Amino acid sequence: MHIHILGICGTFMGGIAALARASGHTVTGCDANVYPPMSDQLQALGITLIEGWDPEQLKLDADLYVVGNVMKRGNPLMEAILDRGLPYTSGPQWLGEHVLHGKWVLAVAGTHGKTTTTSMLAWILEYAGLAPGFLVGGIPENFGVSARLPGPPSQDPHSVSPFFVIEADEYDTAFFDKRSKFVHYRPRTAILNNLEFDHADIFADLTAIETQFHHLVRTVPGNGRLIVNGGEASLGRVLARGCWSDVESFGVAEGWQIGTRHDDGFDVLFGGEPQGRLRWALLGEHNALNALAAIAAARHAGVAPVQAIEALSRFANVKRRMEVKGVAAGVTVYDDFAHHPTAIATTLAGLRRKVGQARILAVLEPRSNTMKLGTMKEALPGALAAADLVFCYGNNLGWQPAEALAPLGARARSFDDLQALVHAVTTAARPGDHVLVMSNGGFGGVHGMLLTQLAHEGA
User: Which GO MF terms are attached to this record (predicted)?
Assistant: First the structure.
C-alpha cells in the first residue's frame, strides 16, 4: 500500500512514517517548516518528502492519506482530498488499527515528561530483552530513532514481542476527530505522570483536559494497571470519576518513592521497601519521578525493579532534553524542549543544582500555541527566576514579552530579531557560563549561531 502522510515532519507523524515503512508500505509525505532531528530521520529512512501542500501531490495516486493534526480545513491539498472523496484517516487511528491492535500497549500520558518517560520505559524493556516496539515524541539516544516495530525477544528469538511503548498525547487527533490522540491506543499499562492546564488553543480549562484523561482511564482493561502520580490532585479527580483497573502510585510513601539521595542518584523504594540504588547523571526531581513511573510500568510487564534500575543507570536521555550542543569560549550551550512554565522552571532548577553558583543565561522562544495566546505569560517570570539573565525571542507573538517579563527587571530582555538576540547573548556571556536554550521548535538554528559567534569572539 502507498501511504502519503500530511504533516510528516512532526515527531509523531514522522514516527508513523517510520512504522509504516517498516511494515512494508510505500511511504511519502509532505510538510512545511522542516527542521532536524525528524527531517534527518526521514532522510535516513529514504522517505520522499515534498515541501508544501500543492494538490499536484494527488498525482502520486496514494492508496491512503494519513492526516496529521496540523492540517486544517482550507488547506489546498486537504480540500482536494475531500473534494475527490479519497480515503483518509488520522495518524492515531491508523496506528491503533494497524500497529497497536493485539499488542500489550504501555502508554505514557501527562502534561510534562512524556517523551523522557516513554524513552526510559522502552529502554528498560529493551535492556530486559523484551524487544518492544515504540513511538516516542523525540529521538532517544539509546535507540537513535523515534519509532520502531516490535522485534524478537531474546528469550524466544523466533517470535515477535507483544510489547509496544507509546507516548500518549492529550492533544486532539485531527480536524475531523477532536478526541485526544491517546483514546485510540487502548493500553493495558498506562502512566499518568502529571496533569496541568495546557493546550489553551483546544481546551477551555483544566476540567476539559481531565475529562480527556478520564476517557483514557475508561479504555484500560480490568486486568490492566494505571501508574499514577500520587501527588497530583488533578489526577485524583480523574480517578474519582471512575476506575476499573489496578492502580499503583508513585511519588508518595504508600507507592513508589524516592529514598535517600546521593551525589550520583537516589535509592528507589516501593511501599517503603528498598528496591535498589539508581546511579545516573540526569538532572532534576522531575526526572527522578519519571524514573519511578517507568520502573513501575515495566514491573507490570514482568521486569523486576532491580533490572529496571540497572537499565536506567545506562539510560542516555533524549535529544533536545538538556542536550549539550557544544562549548565555545568556555561557555556551554544546551538545547531543551521546555516551553510550558512548569517545564521551564524544573529544567532551570535541575541545571542550577548541577552548576551551583555559575551563571545561567536562559534563552527562550515562546512558540507553543498556548504560549502564543499569552495564556501563561504571567507565569513566566516565576518560571525563569533561577536564571541570572533571560533573553526572550518574541517574534510573531500576540503579546509583548517585555511587559510580561518586567518583574525580572534588568535581568530580562526581549528581541524581535534573532541576530540581535544572538549578539546580546554572546556579548553578555563569560567563560564558565551556561546558556540554556528552550523552545519546542527549531528556533532558527540559534544554537549553532551562538556557538559560532562565541568561538569567533573568543578567538
Answer: UDP-N-acetylmuramate-L-alanyl-gamma-D-glutamyl-meso-2,6-diaminoheptanedioate ligase activity
